Amino acid sequence: MKLSHAVLASALFISACSDAPQTQITNLNQLQPASPPPEMVQKPDFGDYKIVEEKKKAFVAFLKPGVTYINGLIENARTRLSSLSDAASINQDDQAFLAKVADLFNLPLPENGPDQAWFKEALKRVDIIPADLVLSQAAKESGWGTSRFAREGNNYFGQWCYTSGCGMVPSARSQGKTHEVAVFKDTFLSIRAYFLNVNRNKAYASLRDIRADLRKDGKPVTGVALANGLESYSERGQAYVEEVQGMIRYNEEYWSQG
Fold this sequence. Notes:
Helix content is 50%, strand content 3%. The protein has eleven helices and four strands, in the order αβαααααβββααααα. It is mainly α and 258 residues long. The relative contact order is 0.17. The chain has a four-stranded mixed β-sheet with strand order 1-2-4-3, with no helix packed on it.
């Protein structure tokens, strides 16, 4: 089933900086309202869990529906993109869809319309991110949902913003720094921000290259493989990558639940 440009826009639209490392957002006022999946309406207090296994299960049960939903939207959009790349002609609705993809994924259309080079890059960006990778980063960045930023700002991925008052000032912010930790209306918006950031930020081009190569070779797109493209997500570089990969492997039983 084709995903209309209106559905894609309402489900994914967020303004994020495409040139900066980490997950930085330039204007939170450009977030569009969207309803999270029913499973995400009531956020648990993860700090109340005394048994680690129960906290992990609750964390995945809460976040995974949003990850699955967004991956489904992306798969539909990707299918439509692939079909249009081989189309003999493109109608007005298709043109509107492509314009929205260009806007969402920071990939301006050529003056004469989309060519094969544009479609190739678009298909690199409009692609899924495995749930185990998304959830591992969310768990790592938020302390399994217990960090102040997750509890008070629905920020599970360490997203930053740069307008005064746009979020929460981190207590450990170095002198001279101006960033704040972004605040989201709900957890679903935090997940959307993460997806668009990883799929269009120049800092994660290597992740998208790894994913495209896996597709080309007919191999599965795995979180462990894609994590190799996240060196820029943290100042710790390769050590961060290895920690995320370790979390994916160690917590496999939780990522696969549901």
